[in-house]
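> forwarded from #structure-qc
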């Protein structure tokens, strides 16, 4: 797209970003010190308030999006009844459009053991900020807020409207959820009122993520008949039936899946193929009884050329063939979560503005990549019908969910500059008189 920012405006934005990096780090540290752990979803109201207060201090109109008890039970069934609170800030410009919406999730996964630094301390060490959520993805929230602030402190007024949201429950996914899914369902993000959406997940500062792989999380139960362990022929061993099923899938279907490669690079590259893994198994009650039930939980990941219907059918075909060929084979199939693969075009003003900003700041063209897991982009693209939605933020995907999670301050600063330049390009700016 044509370059509509004057060189002096670009330089003013870059200089402003340099000057406010310490403020951005301080904001990030404050978020990291709030243990918004999911599951079950603790400290959500506190984290939403912290973000909202900073947005209000920066001049945003702030509202909090909460759930009724019934909505909480339906949308957060694993949340132990804890309150869900999202925060939304709006910074109107002199023109009602375009509208760019920046989004990050404030929930973080549990900590784990053997950290060398307090996981909720926000400690700075050797140029990195440490803490659970530093990369995934409170660092993204800090970057999106201060990218817009860099434009304003450069003495420029954005002509369109900026929205900033911090949402819950991204880590617990769900076909619907109490975070981004709820904002879409309530029309707060919609194709009628939202032009661009940027989700600030970490997939490396030189990449623009255009989509994610699909997923099915489900359970398969084989159903047998109990008998005494001394007379197994009188029973039907559900565990043995399950073992045979797993053996067939891993021996025949799994190798075919590994041949299906994503059309665009996935970060990390080890996730570039379709996959299926059996990750939890439960069967039997005691050693001297033939088990009448065995249940396995599976995780199926789809590349962008696959469909949910075809992925299901592959499993159902194996199960039904076993029903027809193996005496007494019975099963039940259930799904907990399903998300279709998502992919958007690189030939849009949103993507091209970010590509131009990456070229300007880093001196190289961006990589166009696919996320290995699903994320909140699915709600925006599939449910709200907004095609101009990308993933771009600070941090490395390899830092997500690990012990000693951290974010490089240099990456935080670069992402602020890139998001600021792209936003100024998309919304247009005027210098204050």
């Amino acid at each position: 797209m044509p370059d509509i920012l004057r060189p002096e405006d670009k330089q003013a934005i870059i200089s402003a970003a340099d000057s406010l990096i310490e403020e951005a780090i301080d904001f990030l540290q404050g978020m990291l010190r709030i243990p918004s752990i999911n599951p079950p979803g603790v400290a959500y109201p506190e984290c939403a308030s912290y973000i909202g207060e900073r947005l209000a201090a920066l001049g945003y109109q702030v509202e909090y999006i909460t759930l009724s008890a019934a909505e909480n039970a339906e949308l957060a069934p694993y949340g132990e009844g804890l309150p869900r609170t999202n925060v939304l800030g709006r910074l109107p410009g002199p023109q009602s459009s375009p509208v760019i919406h920046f989004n990050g999730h404030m929930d973080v996964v549990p900590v784990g053991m053997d950290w060398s630094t307090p996981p909720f301390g926000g400690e700075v060490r050797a140029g990195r900020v440490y803490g659970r959520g530093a990369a995934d993805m409170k660092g993204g929230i800090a970057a999106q807020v201060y990218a817009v602030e860099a434009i304003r402190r450069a003495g420029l007024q954005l002509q369109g409207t900026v929205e900033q949201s911090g949402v819950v429950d991204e880590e617990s996914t769900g076909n619907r959820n109490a975070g981004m899914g709820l904002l879409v369902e309530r029309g707060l993000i919609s194709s009628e009122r939202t032009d661009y959406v940027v989700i600030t997940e970490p997939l490396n500062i030189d990449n623009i993520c255009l989509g994610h792989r699909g997923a099915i999380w489900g359970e398969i139960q084989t159903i047998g008949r109990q008998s005494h362990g001394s007379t197994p022929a009188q029973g039907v061993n559900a565990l043995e039936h399950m073992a045979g099923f797993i053996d067939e899938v891993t021996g025949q279907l799994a190798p075919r899946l590994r041949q299906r490669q994503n059309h665009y690079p996935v970060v990390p590259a080890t996730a570039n193929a379709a996959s299926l893994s059996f990750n939890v198994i439960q069967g039997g009650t005691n050693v001297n009884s033939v088990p009448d039930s065995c249940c396995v939980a599976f995780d199926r990941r789809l590349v962008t050329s696959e469909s949910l219907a075809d992925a299901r059918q592959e499993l159902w075909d194996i199960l039904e063939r076993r029903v027809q060929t193996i005496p007494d084979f019975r099963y039940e199939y259930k799904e907990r979560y399903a998300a279709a693969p998502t992919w958007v075009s690189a030939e849009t003003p949103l993507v091209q503005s970010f590509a131009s900003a990456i070229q300007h700041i880093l001196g190289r063209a961006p990589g166009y990549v696919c996320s290995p897991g699903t994320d909140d982009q699915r709600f925006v693209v599939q449910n709200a019908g907004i095609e101009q939605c990308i993933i771009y933020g600070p941090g490395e995907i390899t830092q997500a969910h690990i012990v000693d999670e951290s974010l490089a301050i240099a990456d935080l600063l670069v992402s602020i500059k890139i998001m600021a330049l792209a936003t100024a390009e998309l919304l247009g700016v005027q210098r204050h008189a």
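QC bot note: Residues 136 and 400 are 5 Å apart (CA to CA). The first helix runs from residue 7 to 32.
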